[in-house]
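Hey L., structure's done. Input below.
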Amino acid sequence: MTAPDAAPSRIWQEATHSASSIVELLDVMWDHARNATTGMTAPGSTSQLRLMYVVDREDGIRMRTVCHRLASAAPTVTRMCDRLQAIGFLERLPCPSNGREVILRLTPTGKEHLQRIREQRDTMLHQAINSMPPSERNALTLGLAGLQTQLHSAHGGEHHTTPGNPTAA
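Output:
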């Protein structure tokens, strides 16, 4: 590898490492926000919370679509749904167009729980981003937009919104 090629490779490796570290830190923060919600029984796992995000984005989503979106087997998703239904966060209904299929909806209690988590998460992010110098905030905005575009195109253009931001692509 020639010297001019070494610098972009090093920058790529540093950016990848930084992004991975931030994702891990955010996972811990989200888990903290999920566990810090008071007055409700929180879902027992991050997987259950992800299931709730998917259902929240697409009210009345079919169970098999959730399995696809989560890349999980039907029995695994069924067990998560059992738990979420038992604590009052999710309801399963027969699909109107095909009685053999099940559609999923969050209950008002489940929606309230997600809203609390999102508010706590957003407060943590707002505090961190607000403490950054304006030039770093601008760079972060541009960098995240570019990363989101690349991740979106890498997944074949499938529409996946980010939790808490249903308009994101």
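Residues 80 and 119 are 24 Å apart (CA to CA). The mean pLDDT is 82.

-- N.
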